[in-house]
Amino acid sequence: MITTVAPKTFTPAEFAAFGLEQVAYLRPVQMPDGMHAIGVFAADGRPLATAPSTELAQALVRQNDLEPALVH
Q1: How many CB atoms lie within 10 A of CB 62?
Q2: Is residue 4 in some structural domain?
Q3: pLDDT tens, residue order, the chain (72 aa)
Q4: Fewer Cβ atoms within 10 Å of its own Cβ: the N or the C terminal residue of the chain?
């Protein structure tokens, strides 16, 4: 007999906190001076840092025991 379990429904607050301690998102950003950089964001969208390249942003994230996820 196969039983199925309905997926958990997250509240908006739970969804915003999902992955907060494991993942940091990276995406291209434009700085106020017009230069391009890679923004590092917490899972809840909070900006954490910027780096001049994807490689440096990934290293920064991993040094803080998080896993980087690229967002386009």
Answers
A1: 12
A2: no
A3: 676 766 778 787 776 666 667 889 999 999 999 999 999 998 888 899 999 999 999 999 999 998 898 876
A4: N
Whole-angstrom distance, CA of residue 38 vs CA of residue 58 = 10
Kindly state the tokens that stand for 17. 């906190």
Decide if 16 is inside a domain. Answer: yes
* Structural domain total, the chain: 1
Tokens of 36: 């391009």
69 SS3 class: strand
Whole-structure pTM value = 0.71
Eight-class DSSP state of 11? P
| Angle formed at CA 62 by CA 56 and CA 68, multiple of 5 degrees | 80
